[in-house]
Specification:
alpha+beta, 2 domains, 9-stranded mixed β-sheet, 4-stranded antiparallel β-sheet, 14 helices, CRISPR-assoc_Csm5, RAMP_III_fam, antiviral defense, RNA binding
């Protein structure tokens, strides 16, 4: 069982515009626009007039008001669903990021939950087993196939795997994705016959099974005003988000038979780090350690927490909490353009500088 502590948004990639919704008091009516348009046509509105209206909509939240008032139509009769508004909608045209749903009801994808757990495991492996001797021991079992990687990692300037990662990121012709791919391969599992790359079949995390949650009642969803704090004045963003207090169930289990069968096939630093440890215990220790550290930064008092979804921030989605302690981090951050002020296009001195707050709360905290 999981409980939402602060507003949680996991998007489906869609945005609702004033064509799709109508504000009514303290609620948003998400419209069945096909039904509304059919009724407008039936009541005598010309097709060309409607097409022109939709091509060039007025810049207002109450886009449909003219037709609804003129023809005495109640927007509630055209509701697909309606949600409470937490905050204040702007006066002009706005967009609302939609929450992921099945059959009209929100749910938590297993991939989102597993991704949050995976980040915590990456953090713990790098923290506990990322020193150069341990990494060399883990990779050295595979002979010549990992020789080039080992030589690079054992450069005199590197104390641990993150030093190598920062060096790799700092190279002139390397994109961040390439460096991330190398780190993922070293930690979670790799093939090295032709080129060194991540191999999912060799990743022990495949034994962690995380199912989608059960569908969550729609009355747990609201529209939240989200402010980006740190750049001075900012344009608010609106999202559909689960309310604090929402509870949901999702199955999380370890396939121990898969772990047993794959024991001679798995590789990478995680598998090496697990020697003598129970996989499931290691995973939940990782979650406790990583999100316990992050919770302190957000003044979250609850224990046994995890963070996921949109607005949770760069530190929660990465091992940035370890990277920022590194001597070479600032140089690499500037090279990658992290922390660029959108107003001035300059790299800020302090990073991360901004937070997304929904009704003044940091987003995405869940109690396990």
């Amino acid at each position: 069982m999981f409980e939402v502590l602060t507003p949680l948004h996991i998007g489906n990639g869609n945005e609702l515009t004033p064509v799709d919704f109508y504000p009514l008091g303290d609620r948003i009516i998400v419209l069945d626009t096909e039904k509304l348009i059919n009724d407008l046509l039936r009541l005598g509105v010309e097709v060309e007039e409607l097409l022109d209206f939709l091509r060039n909509p007025p810049g207002s939240l109450y886009l449909w008001r003219g037709y609804l008032e003129k023809l005495h139509l109640d927007p509630r009769n055209y509701a697909r669903y309606s949600l409470r508004i937490r905050g204040e909608l702007g006066r002009e045209s706005s967009r609302i990021k939609e929450f992921i749903k099945i059959k009209g009801k929100p749910y938590i994808p297993g991939t989102s939950l597993k991704g949050a757990i995976r980040t915590a495991v990456l953090y713990k492996v790098l923290k506990d087993c990322g020193d150069v001797p341990t990494v060399v021991e883990a990779l050295g079992k595979y002979g010549k196939t990992t020789g080039n990687i080992i030589r690079a990692i054992t450069h005199p300037g590197n104390q641990d795997l993150l030093d190598y990662y920062l060096f790799y990121l700092g190279r002139g012709n390397v994109r961040g994705k390439q460096a991330d791919d190398i780190l993922e391969a070293i930690v979670f599992g790799f093939e090295a016959e032709r080129r060194f790359r991540y191999e999912p079949k060799r990743d022990p995390m495949k034994a962690l099974i995380v199912r989608d949650s059960r569908l969550i009642p729609l009355d747990n969803l609201s529209v939240y005003e989200v402010r980006v704090v740190g750049w001075g004045s900012s344009i608010p963003i609106w999202v559909e988000a689960l309310d604090p207090g929402t509870r949901f169930e999702a199955e999380v289990k370890v396939d121990r038979e898969l772990l047993r069968i794959g024991s001679d096939y798995f590789n990478g630093l995680l598998w090496h780090c697990l020697a003598g440890e129970d996989f499931e215990e290691f995973v939940w220790k990782a979650v406790e350690e990583f999100y316990g550290e992050l919770a302190k930064l957000d003044n979250v008092k609850e224990r046994d927490v995890i963070r996921l979804g949109w607005g949770s921030g760069w530190i929660s989605m990465t091992v940035g909490i370890l990277l920022m302690r590194k001597r070479g981090w600032e140089r690499v951050r500037r090279k990658l353009g992290l922390g660029k002020n959108p107003h001035t296009n300059k790299i800020v001195e302090r990073f991360p500088k901004t937070k997304r707050l929904a009704n003044g709360q940091p987003m995405g905290w869940i109690k396990i």
